[in-house]
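> forwarded from #structure-qc
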């Protein structure tokens, strides 16, 4: 399963923080939404696309995933049965990066909620 402490890339982290500034949606909630949006669109992570997870926002797995922890981990295990630990974290981070692309430019909570 996923490691207990997780982080994203600096770029994604900055996008999540910027989104919070405009919408007040916290980075962990936005990351959850972005992950599931990415899964819904059919994005597939490949280990060749692995990026350095160098963000400074290192949070516990339960903080990042909240009530979606079990389903998030199960979705990842179904999509990537051969991945474990850090590799699975990289897959999660790639999905968050893919999903945030469609959310990062919203300037208000109303605009953000309409995009969901």
């Amino acid at each position: 399963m996923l490691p207990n402490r997780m982080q994203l890339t600096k770029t994604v982290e900055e996008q999540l923080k910027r989104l919070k500034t405009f919408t007040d949606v916290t980075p962990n909630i936005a990351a959850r939404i972005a992950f599931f949006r990415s899964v819904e669109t059919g994005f597939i992570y490949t280990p060749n696309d692995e990026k350095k997870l160098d963000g400074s926002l290192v949070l516990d797995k339960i903080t990042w995933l909240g009530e979606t922890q079990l389903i998030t981990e199960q979705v990842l295990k179904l999509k990537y049965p051969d991945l474990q630990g850090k590799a699975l974290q990289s897959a999660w981070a790639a999905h968050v990066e893919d999903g945030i692309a469609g959310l990062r430019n919203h300037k208000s909570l109303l605009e953000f909620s309409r995009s969901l």
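QC bot note: The chain has a mean pLDDT of 91. Residues 62 and 69 are 7 Å apart (CA to CA).
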